[in-house]
Amino acid sequence: MRRILCWFTLVGVLVVIAVPGVAGERTNLSGSYIWERTDKTVEGELDVVLTPGDEGEWTVAFHFDWEGEPHVFEGTAKGSLTGDLFGNVDSDDPGHPLKFEFKGAFSDGTFNGTHGYFNSKGELVDSGTLEFASAR
C-alpha cells in the first residue's frame, strides 16, 4: 500500500512539473506579437500571465510596449496549455477602449495564434499574430 501511495505521489509531482498551471499556479510566458496595420507592420515583445480559474478557464494579462508606452490588456481565456486556447482581452486605454479576441494552439510548449479587434460596428477585424512560450 505504501509503495502505491509513493507511486501516485511521484506521478502527481511529475504532472505538476510537466504541465504548467495544473496545480493552480500562475504561468508566465514570453514571446512576440505582430500587428499588421494598413500603413505599416508593428512588431514587439510580449509577456503573458495566465492564472487558472475553473476547469479550462484562465484569467490572462498581456504585457507589452506600444509606441514607447507600457500596456496591460486583461481578460479571460478558455482551453489548455497543451492544446487550443482562445479568449478576449480589453485594452487599457479608457479614452479609446477596444475589445480584442485571440485564438490559437499550443504545440510543443509554444502558442501560435492570431488576434483581432472589434470595430465600432462590432465586426472582428484581423490584426496580426501572437507567439509565446516559457518565460525568458
Structure write-up:
With 136 residues, the chain is mainly beta. It has one domain: Calycin beta-barrel core domain (Lipocalin), CATH 2.40.128. The chain contains one helix and eight strands; from the N terminus they run αββββββββ. Strands 1-2-3-4-5-6-7-8 form an eight-stranded antiparallel β-barrel. The longest helix is centred in the N-terminal third of the chain and has 17 residues. The chain is globular and about 40 Å long. The termini are far apart. The N terminus is likely disordered.
Question: Layout of helices and strands, plus pairs?
Answer:
Layout (H helix, E strand, L loop, with lengths): L1 H17 L8 E10 L4 E12 L4 E10 L2 E11 L4 E7 L8 E9 L2 E9 L5 E11 L2
Antiparallel strand pairs: 1-2, 1-8, 2-3, 3-4, 4-5, 5-6, 6-7, 7-8
* Helix share bin: 10-25%
By CATH, the superfamily comes out as: Calycin beta-barrel core domain
Give the quaternary arrangement of the chains.
single chain
Describe the strand arrangement of the main beta sheet, using strand numbers: 1-2-3-4-5-6-7-8
CATH hierarchy: architecture: Beta Barrel
Report the average pLDDT across residues. 85
Termini, distance in Å? 42 Å
Structural class, from helix and strand content? mainly beta
CATH fold naming: Lipocalin
Number of helices: 1
How many strand elements? Answer: 8
Number of domains: 1
Biggest pleated-sheet summary: 8 strands, antiparallel, barrel
If you compute it from the alpha carbons, what radius of gyration comes out, rounded to the nearest whole angstrom?
17 Å
Class in CATH? Mainly Beta
